[in-house]
Amino acid sequence: MLEDVADLLACPLCAGSLTLDGVLRCPSGHSFDVARQGYASLLRGDAHTGTADTAAMVTARAAFLDAGHYAPLAAVLTELCEGTILDAGAGTGHYLAAAMAAADRGLALDISKFAMRRAARAHPRVGAAVADLWADLPVRSGAVDVVINVFAPRNGPEYHRVLRPGGRLVVVTPRPGHLADLIGPLGLLSVDARKDSRVAGALGDAFTLSGERDLTVPLELTSAEAATLAGMTPSAHHVPADVLAARTAELGPVIEAEASFRVALYARA
Ligand SMILES: C[S@@+](CC[C@H](N)C(=O)[O-])C[C@H]1O[C@@H](n2cnc3c(N)ncnc32)[C@H](O)[C@@H]1O
Ligand SMILES: [Zn+2]
């Protein structure tokens, strides 16, 4: 619930503290709506929302993740969580909800209101807000113990600011070969092999790499599940759903693929 995390929030316009009373309000008089579904809207008016997951992508993501296909990744993330968690680019809140088995409370941020609708009810101790990860985060400095970031934009300086000294940042990226058996036949966007070096570069000196774990998850999918998986990837912005469905149908009744993740652990200096 938003109440559980309201003290972590800061005004996206002036960084003042926010108090929750039907709406969120800062001492300078800026106010922000809380949607009927329980998430806050903390976007600045000048935000670029073009990369937000659409309603259809969020529905596909919820169906795929709730079916448990990526449960091994959720388990690894949960092991790394304690205290107050910020999930930056949380999507449906799936991993954050899982992390609550080990953590006290969680704040989900994402620029997609469809994602935040889901995240707001992902777990009783999770609150959700629509926000732009490329802007100053609407979060108080030093307020969180762990930032998790799964296949989402990485704003190193801001993750550093919101983490307490000694806090940790957990970044999950696709490894080369991630879903390779689907990418070719379905015409999906392929993983950029340079991504890992870019991650380290973008985080800069503010973080020290303290551990890395590669995780491979074998998948056995029906063609409907493969279409759902494709529908939650960025390719869904480019390849229409009916085209994806037609292409997956051609792959046969059982489709074998492999998800391949890198989980990198960074210590905040
Ligand atoms: C590939 S999804 C990953 C979602 C979630 N972490 C998961 O793994 O299920 C990327 C997410 O980043 C969000 N996103 C894209 N650009 C963003 C931005 N500028 N600020 C905040 N979120 C953004 C999308 O809306 C989407 O939910
Ligand atoms: Zn303000």
Automatic annotation (TrEMBL):
The positions making up the signal sequence are: none
Q: Which InterPro entries does the entry mention? A: Methyltransf_25, RlmA_N, rRNA_m1G-MeTrfase_A_prd, SAM-dependent_MTases_sf
UniProt GO MF annotations? methyltransferase activity
Q: Which residues form the 23S rRNA (guanine(745)-N(1))-methyltransferase N-terminal domain?
A: 10-43
Annotated TM spans? none
Keywords, alphabetical = Methyltransferase, Transferase
Coiled coil segments of this chain: none
Carries keyword Repeat? no
Taxonomically, the superkingdom here is Bacteria
Q: Which residues form the Methyltransferase domain?
A: 85-167
Pfam families documented for this protein = Methyltransf_25, Zn_ribbon_RlmA
Q: Cross-referenced SUPFAM superfamilies, in alphabetical order?
A: S-adenosyl-L-methionine-dependent methyltransferases (SSF53335)
Alphabetically, which GO biological process terms does the record hold? methylation
Q: Which named protein is this?
A: Methyltransferase domain-containing protein
> Which species?
Actinocorallia longicatena
